[in-house]
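Recap quiz, item 2
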Amino acid sequence: MSPAGPDGPPADGTPASPVRVTDPDDPAIALFRDVKERDRIGRQGIFIAEGLSVLTVLLTRSPLETLAILVEESRVDRLPVLAERGTAPLYVAPQAVLDGIAGFHLHRGILAAGRVPAPRPLSALPHGPLRLPVCVNLANHDNVGGIYRNAAAFGAAGVAVDATTANPFYRKAIRVGAGAPLTVPTYAVGDDILGELREAGITPYALTPQAGASLGAAPLAARAAFLLGTEGPGLPDPLIGGCEPLAIRIAPGVDSLNVATTAGIVLHAHALQHGL
Amino acid sequence: MSPAGPDGPPADGTPASPVRVTDPDDPAIALFRDVKERDRIGRQGIFIAEGLSVLTVLLTRSPLETLAILVEESRVDRLPVLAERGTAPLYVAPQAVLDGIAGFHLHRGILAAGRVPAPRPLSALPHGPLRLPVCVNLANHDNVGGIYRNAAAFGAAGVAVDATTANPFYRKAIRVGAGAPLTVPTYAVGDDILGELREAGITPYALTPQAGASLGAAPLAARAAFLLGTEGPGLPDPLIGGCEPLAIRIAPGVDSLNVATTAGIVLHAHALQHGL
């Protein structure tokens, strides 16, 4: 049991007082224990947000539920954003206890846990013009985070991910994404990506360096999905065959663009044509 | 002394045979010792390239001198690119010796050392149309590497860096940049960035979200420099005041774009207007 558990939030909805933790094994902060090891094995529907900028996104701009916050105690008074925590419990601890809980030196001194939303089907997308990056078998968390960040910047309706793409709610994807996985809706696509997009009335573009048509030369459909594959092998040919292929022209001899940069360029181009 | 030093390359320029290293303290591979610690304290004019894709760039597309290569011994026969090493000595070692040399587990199993080129002054830039990202006080190696990668992709004349920008020849910048710091020329700018650009006949654009003019609405000068500042504080006001300010429009409530993505978008736009 927690030696100093909160008595629950006050009935008027103002945040409850911080609870000081002195024992890394305190069950109250079990959500935050062994952060990296649990990153590896996966959590059941929980994400971990790290650092001030991501905490700020979570508390001020994200619709997702915050389950708990854990902060190095000397920082609390310099974090006015904590006033936005609602009924989420706030735990504070000395740095050494924090490091003992997390299992590594937590130099940012700030962790929050929240609930991963259920992914939406494409049928839940809004009507009208929209842009949607579709991640196909993207294994790199930094790239997935970067795609969410660009989706947020250029007003994408969401980000669609297939079953083999890296989890956007993994700690590092959230951090590299500047918190965007907590604000941009996640849509799930199954094996029949093209069928699902057709059903939703969305034109699929395959970003591929081999395409004859290049970005900047042609108008883009108002409802557009941009399929993004890994930087080496790219998108599978059958998928490209069912899409409008689209190239971002690069200099001869250069292998490829970073896939998050590719997303940024094509989403920006669509926003220029159809408005943010 | 090396227990099995090479006898020097054959006179016909074909590569010398690999030299097997069994002692992490062998002076022959001193260049590769304690990689991370030397990353921290800095090297005297030497860079370390890591992994196959960067090695390939170094040996096949970079004008820079390769000083030595060190590879985990079981990989050598699967690395045809090593035939391109010219007179650079090739050392091979078992994984455990490799890890002992590098000071950490070198899971990529491939290191190369090369010579950092002297940075060029802007007066050495070619005549005619060109695009040039200018890094102003960019502390993050990943971002600097990403800017070089985009500079390579969109045919920039080089990348200019000021004295406070992170070293593009740092191992991680080279890796994140997919080797582009080894192919794209580095130009150094001093305190009077705007004076140096004016002298070189280059129009300076300041990328800043507050600009009235936005990318996509206006033609860009044929000889154009794009000043890029840190994502939080951005460029200093006096610098913006001397430039054509230029915004990439993003959705309300979103803090900023990643600076490497910003570089990619603006370099792509310039290439569309003036050719790759």
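Confidence is low (pLDDT under 50) at residues 1-6 of chain A.
The longest strand of chain A covers residues 66-72.
End of item.
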